[in-house]
Amino acid sequence: MAVITKKMLISQPEPSSGKSPYFDIAKKYDVGIVFRPFVKVEPLSSKEFRQQRVSILDYGAVVFTARTAVDHFFKLCEEMRISIPETMKYFCISETIAVYLQKYTIYRKRKIFFGQNGQMDDLAKLICKHPKEKYLIPVSDVHNDDWTASLDVKKVNYKTAVFYRTVHNDFGKNEKFNYNILLFFSPTGIAALLKNFPKFKQKEIVIGCFGPTTTKAALDAGLRVDIEAPTPKAPSMTTALELYLKKEAKEASAAKKNGSR
Fold first, then answer.
1. C-alpha 116: how far from chain center
2. Angle at alpha carbon of residue 64, lines to 225 and 116, rounded to 5°
3. Within 10 A of 111 (CB to CB), how many other CB atoms are there?
4. What is the pLDDT of residue 2?
5. Does residue 136 contact residue 62 with C-beta atoms inside 8 Å?
6. Pick from 11, 68, 13, 40: which is nearest to 168 by CA?
7. Residue scoring higher pLDDT (69 or 253)
8. 41 or 238: which leads in pLDDT
9. DSSP-based three-state secondary structure for 33
């Protein structure tokens, strides 16, 4: 018999605007949601960044794999009083991140490019179509460079630089952990779960992962991944979540019908 999800933890900060597709999904499927990051992001100071000896204006293109990277890139540029030229090109892992760039720059198709399926391999293929560019890739201190192997093969001129650091956001001793579903967006989130709850047993708890590296971290930790994104059918976590809840509700309804016969 299907287990009805009642309470869900989304390991991201709660939207400051109060608007999110997650709220719509929660209302539609009668699910309680809590935004509670397992990790938190801290900015690098301009002094720390300069120690990497990276000159941002030496690059004609920037690669973004997360909105967090977008925020910290532009904030650090502002702190260092770096004026980004209008000729700068931006390569984004998804259209969502490309649209998010409007917060900092004018959206022009000739300078903003994005992958079609939200996959790292797709982003790498897009970058390789512009081999003459010099790329800067803003990352966290905890990141996976596996996807850049294809850039090495194509001899793409790129540099990864740390713009922010990711640290565990520990749970308090009296903080309750009574969720039916957990959504993760980074391998660090998986590591933080196990650090906070070393005796964690998944049992019937549903786990959702965004991105192949997050999924791999969960599987390597012996966890079962029930919801996965991005996929061709679910390019975003919200889409994948709704597909899961829709299926769950359908199974519950069928079980109820069979039980009443």
1. 16
2. 65
3. 16
4. 46
5. yes
6. 40
7. 69
8. 238
9. strand
CA dihedral (196, 199, 203, 208) in degrees, to 10, reads 30
Neighbours of 76 (CB within 10 A): 21
Element (H, E) at 248: helix 237-260
Looking at residues 169-185, what average pLDDT do you find?
87
What element of type H or E holds 35?
strand 32-35
Residue 260's pLDDT band (cuts 50, 70, 90)? low
3 state SS of 81: coil
State which H helix or E strand residue 22 sits in: helix 21-29
Show Cβ contacts of residue 7 under 8 Å, excluding neighbours closer than 6 positions.
Answer: 31, 32, 33, 34, 178, 179, 180, 181
Per-residue pLDDT of 15-39, as tens digits, reads 877 788 999 999 999 999 999 988 8
Q: How far apart are CA 77 and CA 95, in angstroms?
A: 23
Identify how many contiguous H helices and E strands the chain contains and give both numbers.
9, 11
Check if the beta carbon of residue 89 is closer than 8 Å to that of residue 112.
yes
Phi, psi torsion values for 40, nearest 5 degrees: -130, 155
CB 188 within 8 A of CB 169: no
Buried residues in 237-259 as b, exposed as e (16+ CB within 10 A): bbbbbbebbeebbeeeeeeeeee
**Contacting residues for 13 by C-beta, under 8 A, at least 6 apart:** 35, 37
Q: Structure pTM?
A: 0.65
Q: Write phi, then psi, for 240 (nearest 5 degrees).
A: -60, -40
How confident is the model over 91-103, as a mean pLDDT? 89
Asked if 160 and 183 count as a contact pair (C-beta separation under 8 A), the reply is: no
Tokens 């309470």, residue located: 7
